[in-house]
User: Fold this.
Amino acid sequence: MITLEDVSKRYGGLRADEAPALDSVNLHVDPRELVVIVGSSGSGKSTLLKMITREELPDKGRIMVGGIDYDTLSRKHIPHLRRRIGVVFQDFKLLPDRTVCENVAFALEIAGHTNAETRNIVPRVLELVGLADKINKLPAQLSGGEKQRVAIARSVARQPRILIADEPTGNLDNKNTWEIVDLVKKINDLGTTVLFTTHNLEIVHRLNARTVRIEDGKVVADVPRGKVVR
Ligand code: ADP
Ligand code: MG
Assistant:
């Protein structure tokens, strides 16, 4: 589903003698896998995810996602690629002046769904994330955990093959964190490949999934599901 071969990335501003953000990273993720990416702040987690979403380009290495080799990917196919990848962030990125329902519907409209499809999908996906009773609320009327559930609903509504969650619990208290962790697990159980970054080891233990550790842009450990991560 996802393959990175010998991928390195140095941001333009860095001097050549500084450590790159990613340094010869190799990673293979199978369809339906859940992979937790751990590492301290600045270790390269977000950069790794941006390689997959094509938000940033690698300096070297090969990236393949869902059978598409990024070296042969033309600019006009990037929107198509992005539709297959759902992304959620620490800061939710909801539209503040739109209701829960409208936030999800808007994403579907942009992706080219008809009004009839949107009317059909939105209630189902809000049901999935447990927000059926908040459909007409504005983001400001929701808790952090609820906002993140809207963001997740919005990103999975298009039924992406891959969900990328970049520190989705970074702004949440404990209770909301576990709700989001359990929801992400459920989405993975329904068949979506998931990459989840965090620096919280408690989350790693709760997810009980394959865990890849990054330090200074290098993959330093790849711990299979069921093994204890320290
Ligand atoms: P993490 O997500 O693990 O905190 P990042 O991937 O954001 O790490 O960052 C890895 C390294 O790259 C850090 O040294 C960071 O300062 C640097 N970096 C990240 N984004 C940029 C950018 N847009 N421009 C320059 N340097 C960046
Ligand atoms: Mg980050």
